[in-house]
Amino acid sequence: MNKRDLAVLLQRNETTALGGFCSVDPVSARRMGLDVTRREGVTCMSCREAPIALLHRAIGMGTLGPGSQAVLDKLIRRYDRLGLPARVEVTEGIAPHSLVGLLARNGFRQEEALHWVHVLETDRAPSAPAIAGLRIEPATRRTASEFGRLIRNGFEVSGPIADFFDRASAALVRRFPARTAMSLIARVDGQGAGTGMLWCSPRVGGLYSGSVMPAFRGRGIQLALIAERVRLGLERRRRIFVSQTDPDNASAHNLRDMGFRLLYRSLYFTRP
Which pLDDT tens digit goes with each residue over 21-45? Predict the structure, then answer.
């Protein structure tokens, strides 16, 4: 499959996962000023309380929807009505090169931040390291609140965004069936050590919410969580897997070690 077709499938997985994550706890979403809409196929996310790239950007210009002035005008008007800066994600090397020039002409400037999007096409789960005392189990309604707390602690966030991640992650476990969203807790000798979530869309399994508690890092737990989510995806007849990381960090190295390759870089352009 060519890079563009893969990118479209992966972005559809990501946007449905984000849409589900942002909708499961309406109270927290309202508190965060969080909203997800679509404009001509492009997913437009906004977050008043924490306008970080994860929660505040337009996804899919030039891939899921046209990279045109007409679409960009709609996005700008949307963010202007909210009183927030517009941010557009660009899939480097896949979206039309002309999109960067279009954004520049409309007052957008590239941010320093970027993300790497990794892909694995396989029919076999990668081998996981043997870790003494490790057990990976599905999060359930009974352990949903624990899953939310582990997400919060694993990503070491604080403030309103930490509360949102905690509540929304727990609500996702309670609301979505395992055939769509499989949330996992990694335990070492019974103690919560890490988390991971597999989100299934047509043909694709997305690996999200992967974290390891600080006290358990360096043991290969993230590698085991990656392998387990790929295995579960294969059981659900997915053969394409995606994950997103900061550039060249430990998570990126772990994905590479498990057979993933870099598909593209996500660049971000903002308009004050």
Answer: 999 999 999 999 999 999 999 999 9
pLDDT tens, 220-267? 999 999 999 999 999 999 999 999 999 989 999 999 999 999 999 999
Q: Which domains are delineated in the chain? A: 3-116+266-271 (3.40.630), 134-263 (3.40.630.30)
Task: Report which residue type is found at 57.
Answer: R
Burial 195-234 (b: 16+ CB within 10 A, else e): bbbbbbbeebbbbbbbbbbeebeebbbbbbbbbbbbebbb
Residues in the chain: 272
Concatenated DSSP letters of 4-28? HHHHHHHHHHHHHHHHHHHHS-HHH
